[in-house]
Amino acid sequence: MSAPALRLGTRRSLLARTQSGHVADLVRARLGREVELVEVTTDGDRSQASNTSLVGSSSTGVFVSALRDALLADEVDLVVHSLKDLPTAPHAGLALAAVPTREDSRDVLVARDGLTLGELPVGSRLGTGSPRRAAQVAALGLGLEIVPIRGNIDTRVGKVTAGELDAVVLARAGLARIDRLDLVTETLDPLQVLPAPGQGALAVECRESDTDLVAALGEHLDDAGTRAAVLAERAVLATLEGGCSAPIGALGEVVEGEDGDELWVRAVALSPDGALSVRSSAAGRLDDAVGVGTRLGEEMLADGAGQLGQPGPVDTQTEQGEER
Ligand SMILES: NCc1[nH]cc(CCC(=O)O)c1CC(=O)O
């Protein structure tokens, strides 16, 4: 008798289904297991359906927690998250079984008339719901008006098409996954806009107690370079979260060094208006990814990253309000 089909829990949105379908294909091809997609309805999806505001709930990760609940209730065997939506703290009973090879981690501009950031006239309206994107775009000093927006990719792009906004900033990976890279008018250089920790990467999560599945996913789906990069980026974030509420960007990259692969990490913390920022970088070995990221975060705190925050209960780290 062959093993029963693995149940892969997924949200209903186009991006979620595409990501889940991609991992299901990898599992079929590399583990030789049958996979069945099981739809999990999240509070976030429900409140979108009823058009209720999500304000206040995105910080707790409604999209992530519904999938995790389904895992813990044994309704599904594995789930796929956008890694940048995962809280930095590990979840009891769950294992980050695999981090597959990531998509391009950069942010992109989708602007009217094919314009790039530098070509947008002063006073142009640029939409983003991400404090990290808002602060970094403001820091460029282009005189753009930053307009807070939320909603899924279609909703955000639709505001440009409708003429309500001149441009929006999105994750390139999201557009790539839904096959809409044709919308991109500029890919933003990480020297100007550093992506969110984990951006462009997927997290494959399952029950820690499913040790065979954890091992098989780790062996066949995990990409060591991607895992090292995102572990370092998340270690920067976790370290800064302790003493800093400022928006943070971080990007780890694996480069070939003289003695084999090296991990390079760049990070930025900014005041919400982008006027102040602390930037730093660090390098190290892939098997010391968490150490590299942690030391980088500590150095940024020593450089004053803890003094960049803002008053009020604004959750600057979540970018989930933008997805849905
Ligand atoms: N902001 C929410 C979000 N969470 C994950 C993605 C897709 C890209 C990724 O996997 O990093 C997006 C869309 C975006 O940022 O434009």
From TrEMBL:
The UniProt catalytic activity note for this protein reads: 4 porphobilinogen + H2O = hydroxymethylbilane + 4 NH4(+)
**Cofactor list:** dipyrromethane
Q: What class of enzyme is it?
A: transferase
Any single GO molecular-function term of the entry would be:
hydroxymethylbilane synthase activity
Instruction: Return the Polar residues bias intervals.
Output: 315-324
- Porphobilinogen deaminase N-terminal domain location is 6-213
What is an annotated GO biological process for this record, any one? protoporphyrinogen IX biosynthetic process
> InterPro entries given for it?
HemC, Porphobilin_deaminase_cofac_BS, Porphobilin_deaminase_N, Porphobilinogen_deaminase_C, Porphobilinogen_deaminase_C_sf
Cofactor: bound how, per the entry note? Binds 1 dipyrromethane group covalently.
The chain positions of domain Porphobilinogen deaminase C-terminal read: 229-301
Query: A Pfam family this protein belongs to?
Result: Porphobil_deam
User: Which HAMAP family does the record associate with it?
Assistant: Porphobil_deam
Similarity annotation: Belongs to the HMBS family.
Q: What else is known?
A: The porphobilinogen subunits are added to the dipyrromethane group.
Supply the name of the protein.
Porphobilinogen deaminase
The gene name reads hemC
